[in-house]
Amino acid sequence: MMDWTDRHCRVLHRMLTRRSLLYTEMVTTGAVMHGDRERLLGFSPVEHPVALQLGGSEPADLAEAARIGEAEGYDEINLNVGCPSDRVQSGRFGACLMREPELVAECMAAISAAVKVPATVKCRIGVDDQDPEESLFRLVELCANAGVTTFVVHARKAWLKGLSPKENRDIPPLDYPLVWRLKRERPELTIVINGGIATLEEAEAHLANVDGVMLGRAAYHTPLVLAEADARIFGEGEAVDPFAAVAAYRDYVGSELARGTHLAAMTRHMLGLFHGRPGARAWRRILTVEGVKAGAGLEVIDRALAAIAERAASGLEAQGVAGGLEAGEAA
Q: Which Gene Ontology molecular-function terms are recorded (predicted)?
């Protein structure tokens, strides 16, 4: 989720779910070791639990980056073996590492030895012409031997030649049963499934076969899917009211504005919050058009929220009129 799940996005998602584990964007080892750590690794304490996802293929560099991540306070270190972008391939990390399971295992052994927090792998079921049964199970076997106990599996291949990164998210067919079978054959491991899962109903169905479900694009484009996660998946509390979530996020936005963060950098993650609800278009328009203006502040969020509340109230009034007519006719 490069350029998507930054720290502002994760705070918004945390306002919707207390229990779900959040992941950072993939950050390369070079950036972690030599870049602006506050910009790349800084996060709000409210984000916990949160995992740092690393990109790289040099065991020593990954160990050092993992140590830095643990020192920054991350709850998990995850190695990305699934991203199919050209930038990733040219750097010999991401999905192309599915071809080098021995190297991945070596990297994971180095990470595990460097930190006390869990070290996990996010992978595909294979790349290009690989046999998924061989590539996935071999990678898992070698990494498990290196001490890894948790695997997040995107249940489709990545075609590194011929498909764009966007196409790689949709075109290769999903093979959920293969991931379910991995869990059956390796019950001692924690297997989390990813890929094409859009609703909590789908997530609940998968949980009959695996230990966890990762939501990516669905959580970003329709974040309200997370509002019921604590209640439905973890059996805790009730669904989060989106207006309450916005109020909580608003406080965070205010503190970030005081630090010089541009409003649009934070509101861009809120565009899909009211997807499918009356006023959603006005919500998106106000945040998009007004949020990028110089000096834009909390009043933009307030204006967008008022548009949603107004449409919701209009809808209730319309229902009341319709209900009165129906009652009169029935009488």
A: flavin adenine dinucleotide binding; FMN binding; tRNA binding; tRNA-dihydrouridine20 synthase activity; tRNA-dihydrouridine20a synthase activity
Q: Is 319 annotated as a binding residue?
A: no
Q: How many helices (H) and strands (E) does the chain have?
A: 15, 7
Round to whole Å and give the CA distance between 267 and 253: 9
Contact assessment for residue 177 and residue 217, using Cβ atoms and an 8 Å cutoff: no
How far is 104 from 95, CA to CA, in rounded Å? 11
> CA 11, CA 244: separation in Å to the nearest integer?
14
254 assigned ligand-binding residue: no
Give the residue carrying structure tokens 């595909």: 124
Put simply, whether the predicted model's pTM sits higher than 0.85 gets the answer yes
Alpha-carbon distance 200 to 193, whole Å?
13
* Type of residue found at 242: P
Long-range pairs of 87-94 with CB within 8 A, sequence gap ≥ 24: 88/26, 88/55, 89/160, 91/28, 91/55, 91/56, 91/57, 92/57, 93/28, 93/55, 93/56, 93/57, 94/26, 94/55
Point out the catalytic residue in the list 83, 96, 107, 143: 83
Each of the 331 residues of the chain gets a pLDDT tens digit; together they read: 667 899 999 999 999 999 999 999 999 999 999 999 999 999 999 999 999 999 999 999 999 999 999 999 999 999 999 888 765 555 677 889 999 999 999 999 999 999 999 999 999 999 989 999 999 999 999 999 999 999 999 999 988 876 667 776 666 889 999 999 999 999 999 999 999 999 999 999 999 999 999 999 999 999 999 999 999 999 998 999 999 999 999 999 999 999 999 999 999 999 999 999 999 999 999 999 999 999 999 999 999 999 998 887 776 444 444 444 444 333 2
83 is catalytic: yes
Backbone angles phi, psi at 161, to 5 degrees: -120, 120
Q: What domains lie within the chain, and their CATH numbers?
A: 7-232 (3.20.20.70), 242-330 (1.20.120.1460)
- Amino acid symbol at 47: E
154 carries a ligand binding annotation:
yes
Q: Is 82 annotated as ligand-binding?
A: no
